[in-house]
């Protein structure tokens, strides 16, 4: 990490107010709380068995409207494993992926190198996946499609409910399995005005993350039919995901669900108000212009080092962190991802408009 980024991190730790998603907790605080929760648990989970892990898996599966669930260490394991199962069931090797899929951009081609799958890219990297995109697919060897809800790399955009249903209907007519990449699926009920179970009813399998919006330490749940999860357990063992015990992650995820899940609908509505306010600042563009999830991207006309320095100086002077570190650069602009959570919502949207404007004008 460069010195300028280290200086930002130090300023962010000391700030009184921050737009960053979750209220800060030290490692020691988290572990103490997990230890307190463990007092009521009689036995640890052992290789995926035991009341703690089995009840947690059943709880998440029920939320998602699926018969069974499997706790896994990461989504990077959960998703290609799900796609491998669909591939073996259909005896086809290809999976349909949007060009911005996590499997394409952030997993070092693991789905190909480790799982023997082939990717077929569908749609435009700058736009949400549509039924028309799917109709352009070569379906002969396509085992499954991945629908990311919402789509992180384009600012949390979502297809309309009607088009999402049409995409699934098309897949069914082609005998193609549907997998939901639900890393941020928790955002979707507020946008679609439907429950998690109603949304997940569209898919054959679904993955959800337990550390992003939920705030756990790490972990994921993969959900589907009982037969699908039985096969997933075999693949998890083969892939090294069946750890002897995972109770710290489960207890932290339970804590995170209690603290954060009920506020995510509010975070979506907050983001929908915040985005247009920040769009009004000179040199700032919001993607999408009208946020659909509890996240969006800011494209800022500023060189990266200059922006980080401005953010750091402003935090040191005012005690307010107005932006996360840039996650990318494009067309001469810095891209910052705003993920709204309880910490963001400690202040009204106007507060962040005022302070981001002041920071960029300094």
List the helices and strands and how they pair.
Layout: H1 3-14, E1 17-18, H2 27-38, H3 51-63, E2 68-72, H4 75-90, E3 94-97, H5 102-105, H6 110-113, E4 118-121, H7 131-135, E5 142-148, H8 161-173, E6 177-182, H9 188-192, H10 196-200, E7 205-209, E8 220-224, H11 226-239, H12 247-260, H13 264-279, E9 284-287, E10 295-300, H14 304-318, E11 320-321, E12 328-330, E13 333-339, H15 349-361
Parallel strand pairs: 1-11, 3-4, 3-5, 5-6, 6-7
Antiparallel strand pairs: 2-8, 7-8, 9-10, 10-13, 12-13
Helix pairs in contact: 1-14, 2-12, 4-11, 13-15
Structure description:
The protein has 15 helices and 13 strands. With 362 residues, the chain is an alpha/beta fold. The strands form 3 sheets. A 7-stranded mixed β-sheet has the order 2-8-7-6-5-3-4, with helices on both faces. It has a 4-stranded antiparallel β-sheet with strand order 9-10-13-12, covered by helices on one side. β12 and β13 (333-339) form a beta hairpin. The longest helix has 16 residues, at 75-90. The two termini are 25 Å apart. The mean pLDDT is 97.
